[in-house]
Design brief:
721 residues; alpha+beta; Immunoglobulin-like; Glutaredoxin; 6 domains; seven-stranded mixed sheet; 21 helices; 40% helix
Length: 721
């Protein structure tokens, strides 16, 4: 989960200066206050009044603004600063009555609200939260996530703990999304609710213009003109439109470390990378090495790197510059004027500005930061010339898969030849498409490359190049794989016809041949990756591998260049596949215990096999590969017995009659169990991270998995003690 530090500031508006105030009596009891001071802060978190408590009780009378949906903050200064910190020494509440009575408690240096008497808005606020079906689940999973986070970072950084943390993080993110959507769904029934608007304002992501406009349009117009936070969103939207990608970067003037005033506009004519940061911001400090690397690599190519610190304390800013050895230009913005200009409310916030002063990219981090800078700084021209075997009239598109399918360019063609020209910074695979009925062709494009594509019909094309090294490698790979895949396609067509004719036996034999050809294709691709591991085509091929076998993917992962091609979609595709396989890899770990039943209703547990070698086989009656594997298993079963390996099959069938029928047909004579639960609800399959069948595990006498999804041949070759 990416993390940034949220800056606790609000925009100030002229209209706020003229808001009418009225007196309010605020009193209450805070368990654990013990005579400490209590402060009332306004919506901008500026202090309105401070009083000393009498034991656990306090009372104050202050002038406040009511009626516009803003909140005030009750703050206990002795618990710590307003932020940034892990503890929360304050809570917010609506003031919608002349007299409010507050109850709260101090626990672990946090101030927690218990109740606010006489506030209809707070009652509504709490009721809306309670009515959200995902709120309790978010709290539950959030607590588990915090526990897992502490375990991984303070107890043991094991793969198991990391996997648990990742799974909980993914679950929490999903639940946050559902929570936010559920609140949005409440708006039609609460179009004038200050309580709901505050909830939506604070919990629904609104980092884009579209997201903000979507929220504002859902509430009543007169409400939007009255509500404090709605006006703030309107102002944020206005600022975003002035600081979005494509707009001229707002100018500012700040002091550098030597006390000289520097204007952003004085850097016009160069690419400018601005890193908004602070000394106290952990994620900012973590991102600095990436910024320094980019500065070192591109400073002589026309890139000006600029750090803008929002530190309040100048000495801490200067100390951080020294500690991080920041050699590029540093400016100081203690009043956070740039926050309003560039509409950021969290740091690190990094943007890229072009020589013409226009914003090219916002919110850059990590790999995306490096990729985006390189995209502009390393680009060189390329040209793709196309010859058609017959005339074509229509539109032709040049496309690429980046974060998603992207149209790069298009041409209206009428004839037998055309060309595309452009700029590219890294090797990538481009696709030529003619729609609705036309052709497809793929080219591995590199900076400075020239390519000639001869297209016959459909997907029949040949690419030649005098200087495109990656395309030449692709041609070498295709020379091996194309014949295999054509044979596989021919077999697939015959298989379809046989199935239509209900010739199942012949179709089954053909399926085996198809499997052999598929295996040959995969082997050819793996051989190519091993031969040219650092090429882009190797990464492209890795991203297209049709396997979820962890050992294979791990081998490939250690071969390919995961740094040079981190910008590419093939790398992201392969990385996702590898991580998913790694998450499911439990070899060399303790086998999860299980309790199930055999066909006679007898209980079968993992502990029943303690002290013996166990082959655990997950299968299902409806799974043809499982049934084929079962026949092979029956043939080698005497050899397994001789070797001292006991077999236990766990069926993932839902219906007993299907399980029983398959058991009879396959002649299973070893332990055979079933919970009559499918994948989605089978606890044993989930514990063993089984997502496909057949899946096999070999467990040693101590209950450790020594082999995951091996072939029967590999099992027979195991050296058992």
């Amino acid at each position: 989960m990416k993390r940034s530090i949220v800056i606790a500031f609000m925009y100030l508006f002229v209209w706020a200066l003229y808001a009418q105030t009225s007196p309010v009596k605020l009193s209450g009891e805070i368990e654990g206050l013990n005579g400490a001071e209590v402060a009332l802060l306004n919506a901008d978190r500026n202090e309105v009044m401070r009083v000393k408590g009498k034991g656990n009780k306090f009372s104050m009378r202050a002038d406040v603004v009511k009626g516009d949906g803003r909140v005030y903050y009750l703050y206990v200064p002795s618990l710590g600063k307003l932020g940034p910190a892990m503890n929360i020494p304050y809570f917010y509440f609506f003031i919608d009555n002349d007299a409010l009575e507050v109850k709260a408690e101090i626990k672990d240096k946090n101030l927690k609200r218990v109740s606010v008497k006489n506030s209809a808005a707070m009652d509504e606020y709490d009721a809306l939260y309670r009515s959200n079906p995902y709120q309790d689940k978010v709290l539950e999973v959030g607590a588990l996530y915090n526990e897992a986070f502490n375990t991984y970072n303070t107890v043991s950084k094991t793969e198991e703990n990391l996997a648990k943390l990742k799974n909980l993080s993914d679950s929490l993110q999903m639940l946050y999304g559902k929570l936010s959507q559920s609140f949005l769904d409440m708006i039609p029934s609460n179009k004038k609710s200050d309580a709901l608007f505050l909830i939506v304002y604070s919990s629904v992501p609104m980092e884009t213009e579209a997201a903000i406009e979507n929220v504002l349009q859902k509430f009543d117009v007169d409400f939007i003109q009255r509500n404090y936070y709605a006006k703030e969103l309107q102002e944020r939207l206005r600022l975003m439109k002035g600081s979005e990608v494509g707009s001229v970067a707002p100018d500012f003037e700040l002091k550098d470390a030597q006390g000289n005033l520097v204007k952003l506009s004085s850097l016009r004519g160069r690419y400018v990378l601005i890193d908004f940061w602070a000394s106290w911001c952990g994620p900012c400090r973590k991102e600095i090495p990436n910024v320094k690397k980019i500065c070192s690599e591109y400073k002589d190519k026309g890139l000006q790197v600029l750090g803008v610190s929002i530190d309040k304390d100048e000495s801490k800013w200067r100390k951080a510059i020294e500690e991080e050895q920041l050699g590029y230009l540093q400016l100081w913005d203690p009043s956070m004027t740039t926050g309003k200009l560039y509409n950021y409310n969290g740091i690190p916030f990094i943007i890229l500005i072009g020589p013409d002063g226009k914003i090219l990219a916002r919110q850059l981090r990590g790999e995306e930061l490096c990729r985006k800078v390189s995209e502009y700084m390393d680009s060189k021209p390329f040209e793709i010339s196309v010859r058609l075997s017959k005339p074509y009239k229509g539109k032709v598109f040049l496309t690429c898969v980046k974060d998603r399918f992207t149209k790069l360019d298009s041409l209206q063609v009428d004839g037998t030849s055309f060309s595309f020209k452009g700029n590219i910074s890294h090797a990538d695979q481009y696709r030529l498409m003619a729609r609705p009925f036309g052709f497809d062709a793929y080219v591995c494009v590199e900076p400075g490359g020239h390519y000639l594509v001869d297209i016959n019909e459909g997907r029949n094309f040949v690419v030649t190049t005098p200087d495109g090294k990656e395309q030449l490698l692709m041609n070498e790979l295709l020379a091996v794989t194309n014949p295999i895949e054509k044979q596989t396609e021919a077999l697939a067509n015959r298989y379809t016809k046989l199935k239509e004719q209900e010739k199942d036996a012949e179709a089954e034999q053909l399926q085996k041949q198809m499997s052999i050809h598929w295996g040959k294709s995969q082997e050819a691709k793996l051989s190519f990756i091993k031969k040219y591991p650092k090429s882009f085509v190797a990464m492209l091929t890795a991203g297209e591998l049709l396997t979820n076998d962890y050992t294979t993917l791990k081998e490939v992962y250690e071969l390919v260049d995961t740094v040079r091609y981190a910008y590419s979609y093939p790398w992201r595709s392969f990385k996702k596949k590898y991580q998913e396989a790694a998450d499911k890899w439990i070899q060399n770990k303790k086998a999860p215990d299980f309790v199930t039943k055999d066909m006679a209703g007898n209980t079968v547990k993992l502990s029943d096999f303690k002290g013996k070698y166990l082959l655990l086989d997950f299968w299902a009656s409806w799974c043809r590969p499982c049934r084929a594997k079962m026949k092979e298993l029956k043939e080698v079963y005497p050899k397994l017995q001789k070797k001292g390996i006991i077999v236990c099959s766990i069926s993932l069938d839902e219906k007993r009659e299907q399980w029983e029928k398959a058991t009879r047909e396959d002649g299973i004579v070893w332990a055979n169990t079933c919970d009559l639960k499918p994948f989605r609800t089978n606890e044993i399959a989930a514990a063993y991270k089984v997502t496909s069948v057949p899946t096999l595990f070999v467990i040693d006498p101590q209950g450790v998995i020594i082999s995951q999804n091996p072939s029967l041949e590999e099992i027979l070759q195991l050296e058992l003690q």
